[in-house]
Amino acid sequence: MRNTRGKASPKQIFEVILQNVKAGSTHHVSELKKSWPKDTGDAKRALEALLEHLSVTAIPKLKQGKSLDDDEVKQILLIKTTLDVVEETVIDSLEHMNQEQANQVLSIFDEHLSDLIAALEFRAQHSSIVIQGNNKDRSTRIGNVLEVNCIHRLIFVGLKHFEAQEGQHSLAALVDCLLRCWVRGANGQRGPQQTSLSPADYDILEKTLEALLRCFNEDSMRTLMVKRVESFDRRRLRILAESFSYYCLEWRAVHADMYRRNPREVNCNHLAAVISVSQGFAEEIPAFHRALLKTNFPSLARNLG
Q: CB-based contacts of 260: which residues, under 8 Å, 6+ apart?
């Protein structure tokens, strides 16, 4: 006897997956990588269901030195898997939409942007939930790099939408997030004299610089960045200024052996970019210029540049 019911349609399969995603099934969240809907309305529903799992109230409050309980492990896995889908599938899909379709999906990001940023910050601050490597210097910062990469891609795939938004609140929040990532990457330190990072490792970590430089070169974002830094108190200005010294020293430590072997092999573009961004801020923000002069950055820039 033939089966007259036939196979489930793609729409029916999607609806089953969506209901399980809403229920918090990590397996079905991951399934969306293979089954992301082409219909814009369904894509909006799927994205909204995903971002609900990143709400501030859903993020566990981890205590240092305390073992994770089963609920925390489950929630961390759900957050990690959800972020993977957002980064690897949702943002990719936006690149293939026309502006009208993209605007509809990006409007969901607008509504849940604080949740997305909170989840990215959680992952950056607790890099142990991210795949760890053998290199401690690299692995402890990978969460920050992933956050930068997500924010950077979201900004530029949705730039027209975010620029057209009244008040540009989403773009301001994304720019502010990039600035926090930049400072967090320096970790409040003066800069290493030695490091276990290789130039290949540094190629991954320098995505923070690439994102900051690209945003600084966009008029709308540079305006927002300058406005944000102008609002900093003396302490935050000092921390931001010192971060530029950190990145110069780290670049030198990473490339020292290569430079000693053959200076011509060393790509100085990213060092030049650090100097360029710092000068851009200094030219537009007198208070930052004064803070920068109080660090060892000017002499570092002269000696390394």
A: none
